[in-house]
UniProtKB/TrEMBL annotation:
Annotated signal peptide: 1-27
Acidic residues bias spans: 129-139
Domain of life of the source: Bacteria
Protein name from the UniProt record: Uncharacterized protein
Region named Disordered: 101-139
Keywords for this protein: Signal
Biased composition annotated in UniProt, kind: Basic and acidic residues: 101-128
Length: 139
């Protein structure tokens, strides 16, 4: 089956369009100014539909992409849960908190060194342990 350039690049276009939104939501979440989850999902869906329209994707293609996205999300969540279980086997709650605190401090120092101030740049997060814990609790 021969695919057009549009069909080949549609997933990449979708990823590029949604990436800034994901980074913005993540950055806001880390700063305690998290967006209402329902509003964020609505905004993402609107963005996705706009991308689909610009790419002139068929309904069938849109459905297939939405299914692929949902499968990917489920796989990532399952992997995150598996990772958290492994961390819990290795570290006590206190040790996990100490790790999160140390990572948070180093991240803040790194942002300060780059002159980004308290807010930082969207899309960069070196605070993996904190991110895992916070994202899992949001799910």
């Amino acid at each position: 089956m021969k695919m057009s350039l549009r069909q080949l690049f549609a997933p990449a276009l979708l990823a590029v369009a949604l990436t800034p939104l994901a980074f913005t939501a993540q950055a806001d979440h880390h700063e305690g100014r998290g967006m209402d989850r329902e509003a964020m999902m609505e905004r993402m869906e609107e963005r996705r539909q706009e991308v689909y329209e610009r790419a002139e994707l068929s309904e069938e293609q849109q459905t297939a992409l939405n299914e692929a996205h949902a499968e990917h999300r489920e796989a990532v969540l399952a992997l995150r849960e598996e990772h958290q279980a492994r961390v819990a086997e290795i570290l006590t709650e206190e040790e996990q908190q100490a790790l999160r605190d140390a990572m948070h401090e180093m991240h803040a120092e790194h942002r300060h060194e780059r002159g980004e101030g308290e807010r930082g740049k969207h899309g960069h997060h070196g605070d993996a342990a904190e991110m895992d814990t916070e994202e899992a609790s949001a799910e």
